[in-house]
Write a structure and sequence with these properties.
Helix content is about 30%, strand content about 15%. By secondary structure, the protein is an alpha/beta fold.
Amino acid sequence: MSGCATDAEMRHSSEDAGRVCPADYRIGVSAFSGRPELSCDTLFVVGGLYGNCFALDALELLIAAESGSVHVVLNGDIHWFDCLPEDFSEIERHVVSYRALAGNVELELCRSDDIGVGCGCAYPDCTSDAVVDRSNRIHAMLGSMLTQHPELKEPLEGRTCTAVVRVGNHRVAITHGDEKLVAGWECSRDSLQDAERQNELSAWMRANGVSVLATTHTCAPAAVVLDAGAVINNGAAGMPNFLAALYGLVTRVGVAPSPHALYRACVDGVFVRDAVRVDKSTRDRIDGDGVFVEAVPLRYDHDAYLRWFDSTWPAESPAALSYRERIVQGPTDEVADALLGGFEVADKEDTSGIGLRDTHITSD
């Protein structure tokens, strides 16, 4: 849930809380082979909301701009910065309208006994001990709040960790980390560049009849087209993902392309870069049986979000130390860093007005 550190900051402790992936995070081999539970023309997959209620407001605007049937799946880590009961309950008030999956944050909040895994993030070696410790402290604060307000925990209990949705004629598999583990890191940017891992994913997609695998967890977007389909990790819906780009990202899978996409690919269809400029009936004929797989900016009210964050997490708090700089200016990543093959940047920046404000940093 936070990027890898420099070599000088790498971990120096052995297996401990925040590093270990619990045994019950393993996803069954048949989890994605069943019938789709939902069917739609457009699917939004929202991973890593991290308690940003303003991002849910922006999501509602995106949904309202769509035509045809629309479904939304929130694939875990819905909560994180919302450590106050009123903020936590406000998130859940919105979430009830969507299909909510559990990520490691929710799974650990639901445990009746502490098994010593902290936040359950299963951070890799390249993440510093300081980052891991702060994440454990954030999670502990959330857990303490829920102990005082047990009624807020009830909606989280029983949430599954996987879903399959049919978009057009294609099956989309959705989970939090990777197809093996809820907190797995094998859909991270580094892993998805490995040739053996790409072959493994293609074989898994063929075996399960899946055209798209949508994940999150790593806080770093990644997208690649493989022999068998596309894998897309949205990074974070509730925080910036690229330098000076102060918006979140959501995954969109649709029978027609979105005019708001940042980058896209098409699975089993003709990818036409100018398709967003024609009417819907023409797009449908161009696309045929394919689906567009896209990363779409979630343009929440950045100023309001920052004011809320600062009022909740003071300067020396664990969340401020780990995340405020990213919230203010974005990480150092560029969009090109997320594109690992087969995806292309959309022709132009979204000028539709979808969202609450212009959320790019500009220099004087």
